[in-house]
Design brief:
Blueprint lengths: L2 E7 L6 H9 L4 E8 L5 H11 L2 H17 L6 E3 L6 H9 L4 E5 L7 H6 L4 E5 L7 E2 L2 H7 L4 E8 L9 E8 L6 H9 L2 H12 L15 E2 L4 H9 L3
Parallel strand pairs: 1-2, 1-4, 2-3, 4-5, 6-9
Antiparallel strand pairs: 5-7, 7-8
Length: 235
């Protein structure tokens, strides 16, 4: 029997859309619908990411973007929603009759009320080792601190940001030549990561795995000054 899911995400043609297309074609998954949300202050955040990109990343992203325009078609049902905590969204999700909700790069925070009103559990794939790396743009901080291991954490969502029950983790080795794009690709698009994502979705009821508690810190988007210092090698 297929696992029926809905996904909360962002309309990102570089990482998220390729992953969602692959999930939608998987014989073990019934992807009912993808809900896309916009991130607040997205323009400034995009500028910061552009500054962080290597020249090779910039070329690759440009080619991916042009390819997405030419293809246009998506192979899964989607809907753009302004507010993740709107009653309309809650009603739409509850009508889908899915087993679980999966968040992948979801740019909005789900409120406690929304979590309670949605009739199925909500899980998240976080591109960082929780609870040590809560927050956003974790690959930047991995590069900045010269950490040679990325992590994809599967956890249940609750009212506290990135603090829900940990279910499983997948560690990914990094080289000293990684870029922002290459780290995100390894976390979400590598074969090992994809197998981890699918198996986690299917086995989501197994929530008894324990992990040691680590440093609990939240990482916000770095400032432009912090990014520029990193780019020129200033600590």
């Amino acid at each position: 029997m297929k696992t029926k899911i809905a996904v909360f995400s962002t309309n990102d043609v570089f990482i998220t859309i390729p992953l969602l297309k692959k999930i939608s074609l998987d014989s073990r998954i019934d992807l009912k619908k993808v809900f896309f949300f916009k991130e607040k202050n997205s323009f400034i955040k995009k500028i910061k990411i552009l500054i962080l990109l290597s020249f090779k990343d910039f070329i690759n992203l440009t080619l991916l973007f042009l390819n997405s325009i030419l293809q246009k078609k998506t192979i899964f049902k989607s809907r753009l929603v302004k507010n993740i905590n709107s009653q309309d969204l809650i009603n739409l999700v509850n009508q889908l009759n899915v087993d679980i909700i999966i968040c992948i790069n979801c740019p909005q925070i789900i409120s406690d009320n929304t979590i309670k009103e949605i009739k199925v559990p909500i899980f998240n794939f976080h591109p960082g080792d929780l609870p040590s790396f809560r927050g956003v743009l974790i690959p930047f901080f991995l590069m900045k601190n010269k950490i040679r291991e990325a992590c994809l954490t599967f956890h249940k969502i609750d009212k506290f940001i990135d603090k829900g029950q940990l279910i499983n983790k997948k560690y990914i080795s990094l080289s000293d030549k990684e870029t922002l794009l290459s780290i995100y690709k390894k976390i979400f698009l590598s074969k090992k990561s994809y197998n981890f994502i699918i198996n986690s979705i299917i086995d989501h009821s197994e929530v008894n795995i324990k992990f040691k508690k680590n440093l609990n810190k939240y990482y916000n988007y770095p400032s432009i000054i912090e990014i520029l210092k990193f780019r020129v090698g200033i600590k």
